[in-house]
Amino acid sequence: MSESAQNPAPATEEAHTGPIKNPKQLMLAVLFGFVAPILIIAGLVFFVVSGLKPSGAATGDNMNLYGVSQDARDRDVAERIRKVGMVEIRDANRPLANGETVFKTQCAACHGSPGIPGAPHFGDAAAWAPRIGQGLATLTEHALKGKGAMPPQGGGDFSDVEISRAAAYMANSGGAKFEEPAAPAAAAPVGDASATSAAAPAAAGAMPAKQ
Known about the structure:
Structural class: mainly alpha
Mean pLDDT: 74
Order of helices and strands: HHHHHHHHHH
Number of strands: 0
Largest sheet: none
Helix content: 40-55%
Protein backbone atom coordinates (compact mmCIF):
# COMPACT_ATOMS: atom_id res chain seq x y z
CA MET A 1 0.00 0.00 0.00
CA SER A 2 1.32 3.48 -0.95
CA GLU A 3 2.03 6.30 1.50
CA SER A 4 -0.81 8.48 0.12
CA ALA A 5 -3.26 5.71 0.60
CA GLN A 6 -2.06 5.15 4.14
CA ASN A 7 -2.29 8.96 5.09
CA PRO A 8 -5.08 10.79 3.05
CA ALA A 9 -5.49 13.72 5.55
CA PRO A 10 -3.03 16.25 3.93
CA ALA A 11 -4.71 15.99 0.53
CA THR A 12 -8.12 16.58 2.12
CA GLU A 13 -6.89 19.68 3.99
CA GLU A 14 -5.40 21.17 0.80
CA ALA A 15 -8.72 20.66 -1.01
CA HIS A 16 -10.61 22.72 1.62
CA THR A 17 -8.04 25.52 1.90
CA GLY A 18 -8.90 28.86 0.12
CA PRO A 19 -6.57 30.97 -2.06
CA ILE A 20 -5.92 33.47 0.84
CA LYS A 21 -3.17 31.99 2.94
CA ASN A 22 -1.67 35.08 4.65
CA PRO A 23 -2.62 38.69 5.71
CA LYS A 24 -0.98 40.22 2.63
CA GLN A 25 -3.20 38.23 0.31
CA LEU A 26 -6.23 39.25 2.42
CA MET A 27 -5.39 42.96 2.01
CA LEU A 28 -4.99 42.55 -1.74
CA ALA A 29 -8.33 40.78 -1.95
CA VAL A 30 -10.05 43.60 -0.01
CA LEU A 31 -8.39 46.23 -2.20
CA PHE A 32 -9.44 44.72 -5.49
CA GLY A 33 -12.83 43.57 -4.22
CA PHE A 34 -14.06 46.82 -2.66
CA VAL A 35 -11.77 49.80 -3.21
CA ALA A 36 -11.18 49.29 -6.93
CA PRO A 37 -14.93 49.18 -7.86
CA ILE A 38 -15.54 52.34 -5.84
CA LEU A 39 -12.75 54.14 -7.70
CA ILE A 40 -14.12 52.94 -11.04
CA ILE A 41 -17.64 54.16 -10.20
CA ALA A 42 -16.33 57.54 -9.04
CA GLY A 43 -14.39 57.89 -12.29
CA LEU A 44 -17.47 57.10 -14.37
CA VAL A 45 -19.57 59.64 -12.45
CA PHE A 46 -16.94 62.33 -12.92
CA PHE A 47 -16.76 61.56 -16.63
CA VAL A 48 -20.54 61.84 -17.06
CA VAL A 49 -20.81 65.06 -15.06
CA SER A 50 -17.91 66.69 -16.87
CA GLY A 51 -19.67 65.97 -20.17
CA LEU A 52 -22.57 68.24 -19.14
CA LYS A 53 -20.36 71.30 -18.69
CA PRO A 54 -20.43 73.95 -21.44
CA SER A 55 -17.54 73.89 -23.83
CA GLY A 56 -14.98 76.66 -23.65
CA ALA A 57 -14.04 78.71 -20.64
CA ALA A 58 -14.86 82.20 -19.49
CA THR A 59 -13.56 84.18 -16.58
CA GLY A 60 -14.58 87.26 -14.69
CA ASP A 61 -18.02 88.83 -14.50
CA ASN A 62 -19.11 87.49 -17.91
CA MET A 63 -18.62 83.83 -16.99
CA ASN A 64 -21.12 81.56 -18.72
CA LEU A 65 -23.45 79.39 -16.67
CA TYR A 66 -24.58 76.33 -18.65
CA GLY A 67 -24.20 78.27 -21.87
CA VAL A 68 -26.06 81.40 -20.68
CA SER A 69 -23.99 84.56 -20.43
CA GLN A 70 -24.09 87.01 -17.53
CA ASP A 71 -25.67 89.67 -19.75
CA ALA A 72 -28.49 87.32 -20.73
CA ARG A 73 -29.14 86.40 -17.08
CA ASP A 74 -29.23 90.08 -16.11
CA ARG A 75 -31.77 90.81 -18.86
CA ASP A 76 -33.97 87.90 -17.74
CA VAL A 77 -33.91 89.06 -14.12
CA ALA A 78 -34.68 92.65 -15.12
CA GLU A 79 -37.64 91.47 -17.22
CA ARG A 80 -39.06 89.39 -14.35
CA ILE A 81 -38.98 92.29 -11.87
CA ARG A 82 -39.94 94.97 -14.39
CA LYS A 83 -43.59 95.13 -13.29
CA VAL A 84 -42.57 95.34 -9.63
CA GLY A 85 -39.56 97.60 -9.57
CA MET A 86 -40.10 99.90 -12.54
CA VAL A 87 -41.37 103.46 -12.24
CA GLU A 88 -42.97 104.56 -15.47
CA ILE A 89 -43.46 108.24 -16.26
CA ARG A 90 -46.17 109.01 -18.80
CA ASP A 91 -47.07 112.21 -20.55
CA ALA A 92 -50.36 113.17 -18.93
CA ASN A 93 -51.11 115.63 -21.73
CA ARG A 94 -50.82 113.18 -24.62
CA PRO A 95 -54.05 112.48 -26.50
CA LEU A 96 -55.83 109.26 -25.59
CA ALA A 97 -55.55 106.41 -28.08
CA ASN A 98 -58.79 105.21 -29.60
CA GLY A 99 -60.12 101.68 -29.23
CA GLU A 100 -58.89 100.49 -32.60
CA THR A 101 -55.32 101.55 -31.86
CA VAL A 102 -55.29 99.85 -28.46
CA PHE A 103 -56.85 96.72 -29.94
CA LYS A 104 -54.25 96.42 -32.70
CA THR A 105 -51.40 97.12 -30.29
CA GLN A 106 -52.34 95.08 -27.24
CA CYS A 107 -55.38 92.89 -27.88
CA ALA A 108 -55.16 91.54 -31.43
CA ALA A 109 -52.76 88.72 -30.54
CA CYS A 110 -55.48 86.96 -28.51
CA HIS A 111 -58.74 88.50 -29.76
CA GLY A 112 -57.79 88.95 -33.41
CA SER A 113 -57.63 86.33 -36.14
CA PRO A 114 -56.76 83.52 -35.59
CA GLY A 115 -56.30 84.52 -31.93
CA ILE A 116 -56.31 81.92 -29.17
CA PRO A 117 -59.01 79.36 -28.29
CA GLY A 118 -61.49 80.49 -25.66
CA ALA A 119 -61.05 84.22 -26.29
CA PRO A 120 -63.91 86.08 -28.05
CA HIS A 121 -62.48 87.04 -31.42
CA PHE A 122 -63.04 90.35 -33.18
CA GLY A 123 -66.31 90.29 -35.14
CA ASP A 124 -67.59 87.02 -33.60
CA ALA A 125 -71.13 88.02 -32.64
CA ALA A 126 -71.95 84.64 -31.07
CA ALA A 127 -68.97 84.83 -28.74
CA TRP A 128 -69.55 88.46 -27.79
CA ALA A 129 -73.33 88.22 -27.23
CA PRO A 130 -73.24 86.93 -23.61
CA ARG A 131 -70.42 89.31 -22.75
CA ILE A 132 -72.20 92.34 -24.18
CA GLY A 133 -75.08 91.69 -21.80
CA GLN A 134 -72.71 92.17 -18.85
CA GLY A 135 -72.17 95.81 -19.77
CA LEU A 136 -69.09 97.82 -20.68
CA ALA A 137 -68.18 98.49 -17.04
CA THR A 138 -67.89 94.74 -16.34
CA LEU A 139 -65.96 94.11 -19.55
CA THR A 140 -63.56 96.89 -18.63
CA GLU A 141 -63.06 95.50 -15.12
CA HIS A 142 -62.32 92.04 -16.54
CA ALA A 143 -59.82 93.53 -18.97
CA LEU A 144 -58.04 95.60 -16.31
CA LYS A 145 -57.92 92.93 -13.61
CA GLY A 146 -57.78 89.83 -15.80
CA LYS A 147 -60.24 86.97 -16.09
CA GLY A 148 -59.67 83.27 -16.73
CA ALA A 149 -56.60 82.80 -18.91
CA MET A 150 -56.40 86.52 -19.76
CA PRO A 151 -53.80 88.36 -17.65
CA PRO A 152 -54.49 91.88 -16.32
CA GLN A 153 -54.13 94.53 -19.00
CA GLY A 154 -54.06 97.45 -16.55
CA GLY A 155 -50.75 99.11 -15.75
CA GLY A 156 -49.27 98.58 -19.20
CA ASP A 157 -48.65 101.03 -22.01
CA PHE A 158 -52.26 102.28 -21.99
CA SER A 159 -54.44 103.96 -19.38
CA ASP A 160 -57.62 102.46 -17.94
CA VAL A 161 -59.75 104.65 -20.21
CA GLU A 162 -57.86 103.46 -23.27
CA ILE A 163 -58.30 99.82 -22.24
CA SER A 164 -62.01 100.51 -21.82
CA ARG A 165 -62.08 101.98 -25.31
CA ALA A 166 -60.55 98.80 -26.67
CA ALA A 167 -63.18 96.71 -24.86
CA ALA A 168 -65.94 98.85 -26.38
CA TYR A 169 -64.35 98.58 -29.83
CA MET A 170 -64.21 94.78 -29.67
CA ALA A 171 -67.71 94.44 -28.22
CA ASN A 172 -69.12 96.74 -30.91
CA SER A 173 -67.61 94.47 -33.55
CA GLY A 174 -69.82 91.73 -32.12
CA GLY A 175 -73.03 93.76 -32.19
CA ALA A 176 -72.84 96.08 -29.18
CA LYS A 177 -73.61 99.79 -29.34
CA PHE A 178 -71.25 101.04 -26.67
CA GLU A 179 -70.02 104.61 -26.89
CA GLU A 180 -66.29 105.12 -26.73
CA PRO A 181 -65.45 106.26 -23.19
CA ALA A 182 -64.48 109.91 -23.00
CA ALA A 183 -61.38 111.28 -21.36
CA PRO A 184 -61.81 112.00 -17.63
CA ALA A 185 -62.53 115.62 -16.78
CA ALA A 186 -59.53 117.53 -15.50
CA ALA A 187 -59.75 118.46 -11.82
CA ALA A 188 -59.51 122.13 -10.87
CA PRO A 189 -56.11 123.08 -9.45
CA VAL A 190 -56.00 123.14 -5.68
CA GLY A 191 -54.35 126.55 -5.52
CA ASP A 192 -56.58 128.27 -8.08
CA ALA A 193 -56.31 132.02 -7.29
CA SER A 194 -59.68 132.90 -8.86
CA ALA A 195 -61.51 130.33 -6.76
CA THR A 196 -59.75 131.56 -3.63
CA SER A 197 -60.52 135.21 -4.31
CA ALA A 198 -64.18 134.42 -5.04
CA ALA A 199 -64.54 132.43 -1.86
CA ALA A 200 -63.00 135.11 0.36
CA PRO A 201 -65.78 137.75 0.02
CA ALA A 202 -68.45 135.12 0.51
CA ALA A 203 -66.80 133.97 3.69
CA ALA A 204 -66.42 137.55 4.91
CA GLY A 205 -70.11 138.29 4.29
CA ALA A 206 -71.15 135.22 6.18
CA MET A 207 -69.34 136.33 9.35
CA PRO A 208 -71.53 138.29 11.83
CA ALA A 209 -70.44 141.84 12.58
CA LYS A 210 -68.91 142.43 15.98
CA GLN A 211 -70.89 144.65 18.37
